[in-house]
Sequence to fold (792 residues):
Amino acid sequence: MRRFLNWVIGLAVLIGTLGRRRRRREPEEERIVPPGSASPRAEAVVILLLLTAAACAIAFIVVYAMDGLTDQTQLLGLTLGLSLGSLAAALIVFARRLIVTEEIAEEYPEPAHPDDQDALVEVVRESGDRLTRKRLLGTAAGAAGGALGLALLTPVASLGPALETGTFYRTPWVPGRRLVDDKGRPLSADDIEISDFYTAYPEGADPDQVPAPVVVVRLAPSQLELPPERSRWAPEGILAYSKICTHAGCAISLYRSPLFDPVQPGPALVCPCHYSTFNPASGGAVVFGPAGRPLPQLPLTIDPRRELRAGGNFSGPVGPSWWGVRKGKPT
Amino acid sequence: MVGSPEGQADLILRRTVRFLDERSGSAPLLLKALRYLFPDHWSFLLGEVALYAFIVLVGTGVYLTLFFEPSLAKTVYQGAYAPLHGVQMSDAYKSAVDLSFEVKAGLLMRQTHHWAADVFVVAIVIHLMRVFFTGAFRRPRELTYLIGLLMLFITFLEGYLGYSMVDDLLSGMGLAIGYSVAMAIPVIGANLALLIWGAPFPGDPAFESRMYVAHVFILPIVIGLMIGLHLALVALRHHTQFRGGRQSERILVGVPSFPGQTPRSLGLMLAVSSILFLLGGLVQINPIWLWGPYEVGMSTNGAQPDWYLGWLIGGMRLVPHFDVTIGDYTIVPNPFWGGALFPLVVLVVLAAWPWAERRLTGDYRLHNLLDRPRDAPLRTGLGAGFLSWVFLVFISGSADRMTVLFGLPYEHLLKAFTVAVLVVPFFAFLVVWRSCVELGRTDVVEHEREAAEAEARAAEA
Fold:
């Protein structure tokens, strides 16, 4: 009995192994992707990472659904980032441990196909056999294509008044126009202090255009080195300049005012974009930086109510330069 | 077999493949695609990083368009961010602030979008360096290189428009500079600026729509098409590879796209997205509510653009103050040199390099094997010199930050940078070129020693 059992078990094992071997061998012979050994541990890691990714994604939804969280953006980023990161880690473990990395060699594609090239040329050449006046046809087709292309491009001209460069010279400043602050209140000469810096706009005009904003500063009248024709432009040492840098159009928002004259450089208006530096004492001359033109000066007057008014227009064109702009042309 | 779940899956797969093949005839093509070979080297993943950053950009970008209102119409802010209460601003700026504070996940998407843009350009630039210094641009891959290069420059514009249309104070300052550069272009500058902006700066209200359609529609499509063409050309000519055991100009060695490469690439894509969303959630970028709305008469100190435009700020700062003039007529205004000519020179030099190198070396052959940088001392030396030039200009764009950080006077720093920009590239070229030549000699000696040793061993045996 015992012997018989042993026989049965032995036979069963033999059949089992034979059967398994046959099943295994068959596909092995014609495999494309080579076989590799199983790695249950790596599979466990991948499953764990995938579940982490799922958990983090659910956490993202939960965080999203909660109201009144102070760090919601941070938590949303963290949960979504960790979910994506776990998924990335799962894929990388999968790539390294659970699939076979084959290194296959093959030939590069043909660098060129001379026969096909010849055939292409031939097809094109032979297709035009019936044409007798090729050059004339070509010229006519070129004319048609060029003119049509030009016609289709013409509406682009509607985008802007491309030829009206005169608009660059237009400013809202006229003699007598009051200087007001950003709330529309007039600037009084008595409010302008030395070593302070004020932004002003033309009263009643759109402040959001390049020629509108000016900076107002006060220097001791003895410090002024204005050109003779501007001797009356700075009453009581109060000066106004366009706030827009002549280099690249940024607003001049830095004012260097020496606290101790003998050792510190003189007063200067500085643009924070590329550090063009202008001297307010000498009519806005460039003392440093890339600007090519002085800062345009606005002549000032003080009316009987001590309010600042424009005495005229700027000393030159305002804002960035362009081809053909005149450096000193009064506007 | 048929009854088992495995057999079931097998059957479904077989049926799907048959269905697809019978209707599209694509089985041979798909098989080829599955077994397309990717040579294995970490540096080949840089372009992929850029691709995945682009995917994140499109995804987050589409989300942002659902909330952003590209309009310059004025409104008074009364939203969730108290410090701006009562401030007059454009709808564009208001909607950008609102989507940051009042749309759940809005700030996450906006910051991730901004980070993804920065990473996108970093990845392209490093990828370009890899391609340059290994000679991957050589025949037959010049077109692939050119398309990639153009894409990089279009990306600069795309990123610039992206942060410009928000209409915060930094946006406006950037636009003022862009406008001035356009104005400075010889002959046509003023006309061009009027055409683009529709009126003298800050321009026609329609200018906002123009930026918007360019940023969310025209340029993304152009970039997307160029990515497609770039990848198609890569696949048609196959990848380049480094020299190795079996590798040669004729034989390509690599991992097939399936199953080997697919999980790696997908893993990389998810890793890139993971990092971008972590940055977007945890690391603040461009807090627009702090800058306030833009007005022509306002600017802020210490403004820095996104990193990829730093080289243009630097270029514009380094140019000494002169306009080309005749009498008192300005001919070429200053911003042209640093803002337009400088990037144009960089683009043209890089675009012309594959052809220039052929003329210089007389090497007109096809190349599938990559150089190590030392294998081409001239290219590596010139490349290093050029790179140091652009890099120094880039760094000098932050000279004012160094003044704040280290207390050095700005004027002196700028002079030092001007000298460095003119001198350092020469030394960089000499040092790198010389090092490559020396390394090459060491290689020869080592090669000979190995050969001799092998010969000796053979003689002993």
